Structure formats: C-alpha cells, structure tokens
Amino acid sequence: MMRTSSIRSQDDPLSLAIRPPPEESDTDRHIRLQHEAEARRISEQIDEELRFEREKLKKSKSDVKLLLLGQAESGKSTLQKQFQLMYSPASLESERMSWRTVVYFNVVRSIKKILTTLEAWDDIDDGSDSQSTLERQELGDYLPPRASSSATPSIHSSQIGVALSPPSPTSPTSPTASSPIRGSTAISDLRRRLLPLTNTEPQLADRLSGGVSVSGSGKGEVYVRSGWQARTIQKGQKLLRRQPKPSSPVDELTIERPGTALSVIDADPLVDDVARMLEQSREDIRTLWENQVVRALMTSRKLKLDEWSEFFLNDISRISARNYVPSTDDILHARIQTMGVAEHIFDVDIHGKTVTWHLFDVGGARGQRHSWVPYFDDANAIIFVSPISAFDQYLEEDPRTNRIDDSLQLFTQICSNQLLKRVHLVLFLNKTDILRKKLERGLSVSKYILSYGDRPNEYESVVQYFRAHFLQVHRRNNENRRVLYTHLTNVVDTKATQSIIGNVRDSIFRGYLQSAALV
Ligand SMILES: Nc1nc2c(ncn2[C@@H]2O[C@H](COP(=O)(O)OP(=O)(O)OP(=O)(O)O)[C@@H](O)[C@H]2O)c(=O)[nH]1
Ligand SMILES: [Mg+2]
Hints:
Blueprint: H1 5-11, H2 13-18, H3 26-61, E1 64-69, H4 76-87, H5 89-95, H6 98-124, H7 130-136, H8 184-198, H9 201-209, E2 223-224, H10 228-242, H11 269-290, H12 292-299, H13 307-313, H14 316-319, H15 328-333, E3 337-338, E4 341-350, E5 353-362, E6 381-387, H16 403-416, E7 424-430, H17 432-440, H18 445-448, H19 459-476, E8 484-488, H20 494-518
Parallel strand pairs: 1-5, 1-6, 2-3, 6-7, 7-8
Antiparallel strand pairs: 4-5
Helix pairs in contact: 4-5, 4-20, 6-8, 6-9, 6-11, 6-13, 8-11, 16-19
Guanosine-5'-triphosphate binds near residues 307, 333 and 490.
C-alpha cells in the first residue's frame, strides 16, 4: 500500500528529532527557540559564504592570469614592480621603506665582496713586500682560479655553441707589470673600519628571508617569500617595542614620504643601525670604491660585482644619508631573489572595462622551478624573460651552464609543455642596456658563444643572433601555430617598459577575449 506524505512526515526521523518535547516549560521553550535562531543564523552565514565562494570562483575564472617565467636574475620581479607602478602605485608607495633593507643589504654585500677579493690578494702575497711583489706581476697571476674554471659544461645539451668552460678573463685593459698596487695599508685600515658594517650582512639577510635559507642556490643567495615587505616591517617594529625609547630625538628615524606625515612607523633598530654606520662610513666607502686597485680588478674582470652593485655604490652619498628614502629607481634596481611563487593582483582598465589580473612572479633558480607547474593549468598568458646580456655569465646554481644556453633550454621546455600549448606567449629579450655596455667595453660574444663565429661584435648583430635562436625554438615547438610576441627590453627603464606593458596588455587581452569566445 502506498503511504501518504503526511504519514511519511510523521515517521520522518528529522521531524521527530526537531519536534518540541511534549511537556516543554516556557523557559525551555525560550531557550530552544534561541538555539534554533542561532542555528538558523549560522546556517544562513554558511550559505552566504558558500555563495560568496561560488561567485568568487566564477569571477576569478574570468580574471586574467599571467605568469612571469625565466631564469634567476632575468628581471621578472623588476617587471612585476613595473606592473605595480603602473596599476597599483599606492601599494608600491606603502612598501617603499621596506626596500631600504634590500638596498642596504645589496650595498653591504657589495662592499664585503670587494674587501674579500682584496683580501685574497693579501693572502696570496707573503706580506713581506706586497707592493713591490705586486708591481712585478700581472693582477691575474695573484688571484685564485674561479671555482668553475675546471668544470666541463654539458656541451651535448647545449642549445647554442657555448664555450667549453667560462673563458679565463683577460682584457686589453688588464693592469700590467707597470700597474702599481698602491695603498695596501690604506685598504687594511678601510677593512678594519668597515668591519662593523660588513658584519651586519647576515643579520640583514636574516631580516629579509625571515630565517629561511635555501640550499643549492649557488653563492648563498637570500630569498624572500611573497609578503616579505610587511613581515620585514613587522619584525623590525616588534624589536623596536622591546628596545628602550631613544634618548634623543636625533636617534629617532623620522621620514617624510609623499602624501604622509612625518612617520616613524617603519623604524627598525637593525636597519637604523646600518643607516647610522653607512652615514659614518660614507667617506671610507667612497675611498674604497674609487680605489685604483679595485678599479683595476674590475676592469680586468678579476673582481666581478653584481650588476646592481655599481648602481648603488656610484650613488653612495645619497644612499648613506641618514634620512634616506629609496627612490623608485632604487626599488627597480634592488635585488632580492624570489622564493616559490608570489601572486600580485591588479585591476586593469582596458578600454573602459575593468579586468582583474593575477600576476605570478616565480623564483627562477633551478631549485625553484618545480613550483611553477601548478600554475600552468589555468594560465592565460606567459611573459618569458631572458637576459640577453648574460652571454658571458654562468648559472650560480650550476657554473658549467652558460646562462643564455640555460635560458634557451628553459624556453624550449615552456614552448613544448602540453599544459601551456594554448597560452598566449610573450618573449622579453631583456637587459639590452647591459648588453650594449658590455659590447661597448669590448667584451667578445664569440669568446663565450662559440657558434657566434666571426659575426660583428655589435649590438644589432648580437640581438639579431639571439632573437633568431629563440624564434627557432618557438618554431620547432609550435604545433598550435600560436604567435610569439617578442620585445627588446630594459625593464629598469620605466617609460619604455610601461609603453611595452601597454602593448602586451592589449595583445594578451585580445587573445583572452578570443579564447573566452571559444569556450
Ligand atoms: N640594468 C638592468 N638591470 C636589470 C634589468 N632587468 C633586471 N635588472 C636587474 O637585475 C636584477 C635581477 O632582477 P630580478 O627582477 O630580481 O630577477 P628575477 O628574474 O626576479 O630573479 P629571481 O627572483 O631570482 O628568479 C635586479 O637588480 C634588477 O634591477 C634590465 O633590463 N636592465
Ligand atoms: Mg624575482
């Protein structure tokens, strides 16, 4: 026999469970109703949250997801800063002071590297008569061999004919037997006086990385995770709260920033100490930086400073001022390695329509590349950044691999990846300014890239050669006949980069609209 719905509802366990007890008092009833109201409120809240999540998911599906890929030091984070400057200048402004820690770290590390290289000279010389001994010798005879020079590169996997090993640096401008090494006493004095400053390097590194160290990264690089700016400031403030109040107002860091009142919010005792030391050491740093031996070592490429070192050391008077506030140019030049993947969200106005862009800035060192893959699935576009100035450089994490070769291998992997076959592809051949300078200085491409042969050692020819190699990789791995948009870039040049970003944004958006129409 069929049961009616009313009979069924009587047996329904849920109805039974929520039916009020037969002899319920007024107080019990009141409490029960209160509980039921609360349960209803929670349930509605959960429904609302679920609705919100669903909306967000739906909305985020229509957002643009852009990956910045490329090897370490190629310029991805710098490009990300240019996007930030263009689409979210207020957020860059709010982070401005946290970049002071990075700039100081870059400066201190550069000074330390100069002093360590000079020390290597002292160690090799027996110290009895360093001046006359050094006068007799070429600078190169005194320096220890590069760690990488005995290594053999994997020529078989090479995308481009690279030199069998990093050529030993010789230069027409190498100091010769007549180059006097003057002032070794002066240098040891400088070293002693700069010691408290150089001793802060590990602490600055710790402040930036939050104590995280990454093995296998080559020269013991310092990595930062997404959100480090806020954490760096928070940690500094925590330490500041633990310290007694400064006795004199001169000790208190007061900073004037555009649009804000004088502020002490970003004060960090460590960074403040470094600022004080830098100010006191300003003349010593300048003397060291202008020292003839240092110059000679740099010219002969026995001392290889990082690209950004020169930018900061040339401007040490400004940077070591007590009330130093990093300029936008400083922020663009400041170097800190990215760890994992950092997501940056911008609202981008495109022809009257606002679209949310998610920019994923990845760590490019070999040990970091595994973390890219989860982001391939729903990416709309990639900007692959390759530093074409790096023809004379080898990977920090693998000194046998030429950096241009690594970049081509990485580009091959990206072009041939099945998950990325529909993704809009943009190639930035970056650091063109550094490439120009290297060629002007007479650095020979064919010495490092054997296959370059006897082509002219000139900018146009070199760019043309590297571009052709990247285009070939793309052509060979292009089942879907997708277009490759190529740009020659110098991403520390704000005006030029912002105009390129405008172009790239339009082309990515066009591709995005087309693929959306196909769905
Ligand atoms: N002169 C010049 N410097 C550049 C250019 N692009 C990047 N740099 C500098 O090169 C350094 C490395 O750039 P980053 O943007 O940190 O490199 P990255 O690709 O993010 O590196 P990882 O985070 O390690 O993967 C920084 O000091 C930048 O200022 C460029 O086109 N010209
Ligand atoms: Mg980076």
